[in-house]
Structures are given as structure tokens and as C-alpha cells.
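Contributing new records

If you add data, match the layout below exactly. Sequence lines come first and carry their own label; structure lines follow with theirs. Keep one chain per record. Anything else will be rejected by the validation script.
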Amino acid sequence: MNYLFFDIECAGVFKNVAKICAFGYCLTDGDFRILEKEDLLINPQGGFHLTDRKGEQGIVLPYKYEDFKTYPTFLKRAEKIYALLQDENTLVVGHAVMNDVKYLNLESKRFSLPSFRFSFADTQFLYMNTIGEFSRQFGLGTIAEQLGVEFTPHRAVDDAYATMRVAEAMCRAEGTTFEGLLEKYKIRTGRIENYEVVQNTSEAFEAFKAEREKQKEAREKARAEFHIFADREKRKRAKEGKMKNKTVCFSHAVEMQTPLAKKLLSAAFAEAARVTFRAEECDAYICFEDEGGQRLKSVRERNARIFNPQEFAEYLGV
């Protein structure tokens, strides 16, 4: 079986539009020997609006943007792209490939073309399985650097080539073929058909998702228990005390430590404190020292007093 490693760059990505400007690919045999390698540049039929994933800082593509109006449109490149991706003897592979597959889906709809129909593997997802880490994503540059692969970022054909070298390096490290890696880590490839896209998955990833959902449910249960306790116990709040007219709020992490949070809140009520679950409304915020995030930022903007649980206990004399 051959492998088609590919990457896509877009002039702009909007809610229901992805204007592809480059389709780079590297076609190899099963031993990663290159059969074809090309950067298909495409007239996106529109201007360039390049941003990062947050829609903020713009990326810079290593092309001359003014040249793109001279290239064929996606409609004229479509026959070759469909043939490359849908060859029955070829396994399609990309890095963080779901985005690129979605771009193809949007362009096929934009030009009223048939849906793409092929299965695909993802080197990012494969790498995550090999190290057993699903809580964060790994960019092509990060993995390439770790594996000693050099390339020019955002040139589609170079990204495709680097994806191939990353796949080759992972296979070499484990002494198996690419299909052997997929089988070893029990990875099911993704699929696009009838304009529907299904992502890659694996037994390890499904177990990770199940555990994450279990932890989420446990967090929600702990927080709900604390909130019910707070609503009940606030009726016993003292009329006078060192926290009279002061409102306390606990971080989510502290709320999850239910016995601790209950003890601290009871002591705060004994000193006439009020309680809120909105950090931006509090006068005293109780959190662990290694916490961050938007809630803590809003507390600092309010100039509220911040305690760790031990400090708050000492302040209350508990």
C-alpha cells in the first residue's frame, strides 16, 4: 500500500468557508520512498485573512500572495486532488488532519462537487497514543523537533514531507510499519463520506474520554454538594463578626475539596461573612497557590483579598 501525506493552507477560514490556496502532498510507497511530491497552488478567489486558532495573531505563509491570482482555482485542481485522495491503494495521512479534511469538505460544497470519500490517519493522534498523552495537542513542529525532522512551516508540501518523516521516524523507533503502528495502538482511522467526517479514535483515547467524563461528573457532584451546603448554612450566619459586610468566594478547586470548603465556609459564616459563587463579586477569594484562570484574574481586577486555605483558616482562627 502507498501513503499519501498531505497538508492544506487556506487564504482564509470562516464559519462555513475555507478558501484553500495550497494542497501539498508527498506520495510514497510502503517503505516511505517518495513517488511524487508537489505543491499544488490554488487561486482562492479572495483575499488573504490569516489568523491563528484564536482568530487573533496572523500567520505568514511562505508564498508571494500576489501570485495566487495566476494559479488554477480549486475547481480546476479538483480532479487531481480527488484522484490522489481517493485512490483505493493509498492510505491518506495528515497531521492534525481533521482541520484539513474539514477544509476539503467545505470547498467541495462551495463548488457543488461530490463529497470526498476516503479514510485517513493522523500522525498527531498516533503520536499521542504512543506517549499515552491525550490532554494536550502536539504541533508538527514540536514532534518534528523531538524526532530530528527539519522543515519549513506552513509551506504545504514541506508540511506534508515533514509529516511523512515523522511517520517514518515513529515506525523506525518501534520497528514496524505504519499499519503496524495503527494496529499496535488499536487506532481506527477517520473517514469522510457523504459530507460527514468521523475522526480517528483508539481504545486508549476512548478510555481517556471515559475517565475525563467520570472526573467531570465527580467535580460537578462535589461542587453541587458544596453549593447546597452553602445555601443551607447561610441561614445560620452570625450578625456580627470580623467579616461583616464582606463576601467570600471559593475557587472551583477548593469547592471540590468538600470537607475543607465546608469547614472554612462555616467558620466564615460564624464571622458574619456572606457567600457568593461569582468571583467578580467577592471581597475575599480562597484558592490554592498554583491556580490561575479568568476567575482569579477578575478577583485581582477587583482588588479583592486572596487567601490560600491555610491562610484563610488562620485568619478566621480555625
